Amino acid sequence: MFDESINQEIQFFQRKYPDKKINFEIITTEDLKKDSSIFISELRDELISELEHTEDTASLESKLDLSMFDDEEFRSLDEIMISDDFQQKLKAQKLQVDSLYNNDYIEAFQEDNDQSSLAALVEANRRLVLKIAQRYKGQLTNSIDMDDLEQFGMLGLMKAAEKFDLSKGFAFSTYATLWIRQSISRGIMDTSLTVRLPVHLIDKINKLTRLESIMLNEKLEVNLPLLTAEMNISIEQYHDLVALRNTYLSTISLDMPIGIDRDTTIGDMLPDNEYDIEKVIEHDFLRSDLEKLLDYLNEKERKIIDLRFGLKDGETKTLEEIGQMFGVTRERIRQIEAKAIRNLKKRANRELISDYYYTNGKDSIDDGKYEGNS
């Protein structure tokens, strides 16, 4: 990694100054070790020499602290520089990228498809992308966030690197701004809506909304003839655009997080109308109370009532079907059923089951008149 960085730096200077001969000298840790040892030795000798040629040696010794040269850490400076920890930190250093070198990055990328130069270009212009993305914060939805806007902008930046013409002499940042803005706008249009609309329709709806806002700020109502003339559309097309805006641009995803902790979605708060828990509980209580009432019937009457009303399995039987099961006529089954119902009505405690079958002031069970299948 370190050698690669050095090679990149050499290539960069060679591209920047093609007509100049540049000599590079790579300093290794061995060179640093040698230089540091020489420097320390010379410094010590110089100080000792000064001390020897000074008459007031006691005064000079008090000012000069030569014990530093005996310090184990100071003497092991060369060991520190060749240590694994120092080498790892040295290799971790990266070349500093800067937007001042945009043209050099682009040239290397366009000519040699140098991906490292493209990466350097993207990194050097990250602040430009973030600055432009901030302008679109008002268009954030539950489907996209700031990270998405940044990624859209980066795609536009890389597209600009492919298309930029160095020979024109323009600043890359000015050219890239247009691509970044377009990429972010398209990204929002393609991903922010639950139902995707064509880009040209989104543009028209946005223009329509902007003109309406301007008119409402200046006046109390929208001047429809003036607005349609400004957009060069008919009245019918205007109403179509408004319908599309109200239908597709106002939708909310059921997965949108809500609440302080953002751990609940709108879908979690909607009731399930297909499964009414109150009715299920009420039905269970009714079944329990009916079981108590059926204990007042004999075995045959209870069996017929069970089959007739489907109390066991939810499937009702006709008088004819029950008659065949008991080997009697349907008329006989009807008589037994009517008698059983009369007995139940006599035994029924109104306080016990009235809540279940008393509706709108009328009993749901007519006196002996059951409108069932016959």
UniProtKB/TrEMBL annotation:
Domain of life: Bacteria
SUPFAM superfamilies: Sigma2 domain of RNA polymerase sigma factors, Sigma3 and sigma4 domains of RNA polymerase sigma factors
Domain RNA polymerase sigma-70 span(s) in chain numbering: 318-344
GTP-binding keyword on record: no
Matches recorded under CDD domains: Sigma70_r4
GO molecular function, one term: sigma factor activity
GO biological process per UniProt: DNA-templated transcription initiation
One Pfam family hit: Sigma70_r3
Keyword Chloroplast included in the entry's annotation: no
Keyword field: DNA-binding, Sigma factor, Transcription, Transcription regulation
InterPro entries according to UniProt: RNA_pol_sigma-70_dom (IPR014284), RNA_pol_sigma70 (IPR000943), RNA_pol_sigma70_r2 (IPR007627), RNA_pol_sigma70_r3 (IPR007624), RNA_pol_sigma70_r4 (IPR007630), RNA_pol_sigma_r2 (IPR013325), RNA_pol_sigma_r3/r4-like (IPR013324), Sigma-70_RNA_pol_init_factors (IPR050239)
This protein's name: Sigma-70 family RNA polymerase sigma factor
Organism: Enterococcus faecium (Streptococcus faecium)
